Amino acid sequence: MRIRPSLLAFTALASLLAFNTAWADEVQVAVAANFTAPIQAIAKDFEKDTGHKLVAAYGATGQFYAQIKNGAPFEVFLAADDTTPKKLEDEKEIVPGSRFTYAIGTLALWSAKEGYVDAKGEVLKKNTYQHLSIANPKAAPYGLAATQVLDKLKLTEATKGKIVEGQNITQAFQFVSTGNAELGFVALSQIYKDGKVTSGSAWIVPASLHDPIRQDAVILNKGKDNAAAKALAEYLKGPKAAAVIKSYGYER
Q1: pLDDT digits (tens, 9 = 90+) for 121-148
Q2: What is the dihedral of CA 183, 187, 193, 198, to 10 degrees?
Q3: Which pLDDT value is given to residue 7?
Q4: Which residues pair with 59 in a beta bridge?
Q5: Closest Cα partner for 28 from 237, 228, 241?
Q6: For the chain, what is the mean pLDDT?
Q7: Cα(18)–Cα(22) distance, rounded to whole angstroms?
Q8: Which candidate, 66, 50, 93, places its Cα nearest to that of 218?
Q9: Is 169 marked as binding a ligand?
């Protein structure tokens, strides 16, 4: 019996798909809220290029630390700082040698209103606003950075009664985007794409006003035998991920 070339091609394709599926894994990732948009973009390319599936949960770094210590099923952790991953490393909660910096974050003072925030952030000193949104500084590194900026500018006392705290940087952003706060400190990545602020008005806070927001990634012990966890860590170090990360205003 003669087998048609089209049938041979179909059989080969089916075998290849079955092979890829057999070797594909799923990785559970805890992602700092500020990195939501970049990881969603990276996930599409990662899944297309590797065949592995990325399942992400988003939240505050401090909250994720507590969940990880209580046995949460995360295999990779993309934190919003470098101290929490280092702490997990010291506590033997990660695969040895897996910690690395995947991004350096930028803080921005933002308002949903066009022209409300000037290019030098002088609106903070004018003190005419009613509410200033920040993320919880005890759980979210961007919130801690915001308090450092206020302290450096000697505005801590002046703003004390105006602070509205979000559980994480996403909620801090939502307070401003919904108009519940006139302005707030957010991650630049939430309002920035391809070299420009996408909505409202913003002051990109100079890095000299707060400690570096160095964001580290680790493979947690639960991911030590997961090929997808290792593949994701390597992918985040590669050129495709780097281009996406940079497009959202991060440094590497």
Answers
A1: 999 999 999 999 999 999 899 999 999 9
A2: -10
A3: 43
A4: 32
A5: 228
A6: 92
A7: 6
A8: 93
A9: yes
Residue 150 amino acid letter: L
> What is the Cα 47 distance to its own chain's centre?
18
Of 134, 111, 106, 112, nearest to 122 by C-alpha is 111
Distance CA 115, CA 128 (A): 15
- Judge whether 169 and 140 are in contact, CB under 8 Å: yes
196 backbone dihedrals φ, ψ, rounded to 5°: -150, 155
3-state SS class at 226:
coil
**CB of 52 closer than 8 Å to CB of 21:** no
- Tell me which DSSP letter residue 3 carries: P
Whether residue 222 contacts residue 75, with contact meaning beta carbons closer than 8 Å, is answered with yes
User: From edge to edge, which strands make up the β-sheet containing 76-78?
Assistant: 53-59, 26-32, 76-78, 213-219, 100-105
User: Higher pLDDT residue, 16 or 242?
Assistant: 242
208-213 long-range contacts, CB within 8 A, separation 24+ = 209/148, 209/149, 209/152, 209/153, 210/107, 210/144, 210/145, 210/146, 210/148, 210/149, 210/152, 211/144, 211/145, 211/148, 212/104, 213/80, 213/81, 213/104, 213/105, 213/106, 213/107, 213/141, 213/142, 213/145
The answer to whether 204 is a known ligand-binding residue is: no
Q: What would you report as the CA-atom Rg of the chain, rounded to the nearest whole angstrom?
A: 21
Closest CA to 186 of 142, 121, 122, 136: 142
For β-strands 132-135 and 163-166, DSSP reports them as: parallel
